[in-house]
Amino acid sequence: MAIKTLSNEKELRSTKRAFDDATEEMIEHAQSLGIDTVFNRQAKYDESFIGIEKSRCYFGSMGICCRQCAMGPCRIWHEDLPMVYRSSAPQLDKGTCGASGDTIVARNLLMMVGRGTASHASHARHAALALLKTAQNKTPYLIKEPEKLKSIAAKLKLDTAQGIEDTAIQAASLALLDILSDEDSMRFATSYCPASVGKTLHDLGAIPGSVGKELLDEGHETSMGMMADPVSLVLHAARLGVADIASLIISSEFQDVLFGVPKPVSSKIGFGVLDRNKVNVVVHGHVPLLSEKIVELSEDEGLLSRARALGAEGINIVGCCCTGNEVLMRRGIPLAGSNLQQELVIATGLVEAFVVDIQCIYPNIENVAKTFHTKVITTMKESRLTSAEHIPFEEEHADEVARRILDIAINNFPKRGKNIFLPEGEPKDIIAGFSVETCLGVLSKINPDDPLKPLIDNIASGDIYGAVLLAGCTSPKVTADASHVTIAKELMKQNVLIIAIGCAAQACARAGLLTPQASERYAGNRIKGVLQALGETAGLGEPLPPVWHFGSCVDNSRVVILVFALAEKLGVHVKDLPIAASAAEWVTEKAAAIGTGAVALGVTVHLGVTPPVIGSPAVTALLTQKTEELFGGKFIVEIDPERAAQLLLENIKETRKRLGLAI
Fold first, then answer.
1. Residue 640 near residue 90 (C-beta atoms within 8 A)
2. Which partner for 589 in 9, 46, 115, 537 could form a disulfide, CB atoms 3.0-4.6 Å apart?
3. Is the pTM of this model over 0.90?
4. Cβ 473 vs Cβ 503: under 8 Å
5. Lowest-confidence range among 72-81, 410-419, 582-591?
6. Is 549 within 8 Å of 630 (Cβ atoms)?
7. Which of 162, 174, 147, 209 is nearest to 440 (CA)?
8. pLDDT per position as a tens digit, 345-399
9. CA–CA separation, 245 vs 176, rounded Å?
10. Which domains does the chain carry?
């Protein structure tokens, strides 16, 4: 299995580096300038010398490498390894300390999930502190959605009698306890989970304590000479995965309270959203606290006057990756690209300031920027770059920081060089801004007393055969974007509703799937009628798109909350709903944490890039088979996107059978 899946990845990326023609054109342009990008670096692993592959380390790819102590690194021999690896490693089935391959693989998995959970919990802490300080009148932010705050308080069973600010302080304080205290259970996990899911997690010991407590235990368990039981290590990964989902809920819910619940919005995606005649500022990362202020102040008349005085027609804010998704969903800000496009966006020569907060920030952007006038600006202490200008962000001084960054960008405009390049073609139209509240708002126009009933009725009839979440990153290990797009098209033909978040949503957007026209062209006849009816009800006068953009990667929690609501309404476990998820081009530790958490909640999750666990048949079986018995969810590993779509469809068919629905 190991060599086959890794070979399949190589076959996919060897046909084309990116599904999107504009991205391919930008790769060629960057190469012509001698600029090194993620695509070039990936290609180096596909070269060979006198017949010997210059591949990635197969020991690492299979998860059978251990670097935990100074007796190592240790490599576990495996019969699936290429001959050059088998002949260069001792034929050992244990590390020097005696740790088995199963232990090493499970331990590496737990560490990966732990880093992902730490990332999302850190984001949640930023959101919670911002809400807390805002309620204490210490920031320039406002509580824009008091009704959303009340709904959060109801789930947490908080006392709301003392007013909105007091409620915000209670909710934020509780979130901070979930993240950093010694509590034995996370309230944002237990309060949001349906009873059936909560019971399963409790019985398996998978209700997480505070994130800090779980990460402390994880660090201790994975150190040399500690936990050697693979099952216990994987169960801890599941517990951390649930903690990760709870952290996503904190971030997404609190950001809605501060900045507003997203509503459907029209915008654009593509390199062409950069404006030759304006000061271009790119916001990149994941936390929208600063980017919201940058967008707000970009309309300041004083700053606009200064920009015009220097020859610009205005200030143009565009998004990249998930900070881009955040300001798209609430502000309609156009998207320049996702994680794989960040270097290429700078290579257009049109970016005055490339502003980053946290996560998915490639260190090489500062090297690309040196070819141009672009100022790379870091803003968070967790994510600094060697040569970038660092402007520390603090919630209390958000306006001042945003204004300073815009000043730098404006002053940089006259320094723009003549080496400017944009690929052919116009940016693609997109409709984004879907949320649980948006969906229920439209459905309530059909049935005010029971908004979920129209959705349930359409699922029961088969007009909506099921739903699949496309999540995660875009990857250079396959043809970038292609796996997401192929799976989406294959499933929507079969009347499956596609919900997408993060860079997966942007992949679908670049392929034109976030438009009403895509429903007409690609959707099956039965779901096409549903999308038409919902579009008319929403007042669009045309169908909703067949792919619903639900936001950034923390907004996986929106989908989880909607799934929980459906499960509670029907009185069934999440595992029995006709839903699934696909992380067809996953890259980060965060994706590993989200996927593991989703499986623990009862969701079947497809992976389209080989996870580093396949060196252990026992751990692989645990994740792809045993977890289904324990939690109801499992991982499916399939590199071929067409085959993956069929496997996801088969999973939906099985759940429909269990519910007694037509298949």
1. no
2. 115
3. yes
4. yes
5. 72-81
6. no
7. 147
8. 999 999 999 999 999 999 999 999 999 999 999 999 999 999 999 999 999 999 9
9. 15
10. 2-100 (no CATH), 102-259 (1.20.1270.30), 268-415 (3.40.50.2030), 435-659 (3.40.50.2030)
- Under 8 Å CB-to-CB from 140, ≥6 apart: which residues? 293, 398, 399
Tokens of 636: 């499916």
Which tokens sit at 626? Answer: 């045993």
Name the binding residues.
Answer: 57, 65-66, 69, 74, 97, 286, 322, 360, 473, 503, 553
Annotated binding site for [4Fe-4S] cluster: which residue ranges? 57, 65-66, 69, 74, 97
Pair of tokens at residue 137: 């009148």
Nearest CA among 282, 312, 275, 316 for reference residue 299: 316
2 falls in which pLDDT band (50, 70, 90)? low
Long-range Cβ contact pairs of 436-441 (< 8 A, separation 24 or more): 436/558, 436/561, 436/562, 436/565, 437/148, 437/261, 438/261, 438/262, 438/263, 438/264, 439/562
Crossing angle between the packed helical segments 101-135 and 589-601, to the nearest 10 degrees: 90
- Residue 542 has which token pair? 């045309």
Confidence of residue 51 (pLDDT cuts 50, 70, 90): low
Q: What would the pLDDT profile of 470-494 be if each residue is shown by its tens digit?
A: 999 999 999 999 999 999 999 999 9
- Are 374 and 284 in contact, with CB atoms under 8 Å apart? no
pLDDT in tens, 181-202: 998 999 999 999 999 999 999 9
List the beta bridge partners of residue 268. 429
Tell me 480's DSSP state.
B
CA-to-CA dists, residue 163 to 93, 127, 150, 173, 496, angstroms: 62, 20, 10, 16, 43
Annotated binding site for [Ni-4Fe-4S] cluster: 286, 322, 360, 473, 503, 553
Going by DSSP bridges, is the β-strand pair 353-356/279-285 parallel, antiparallel, or unpaired?
parallel
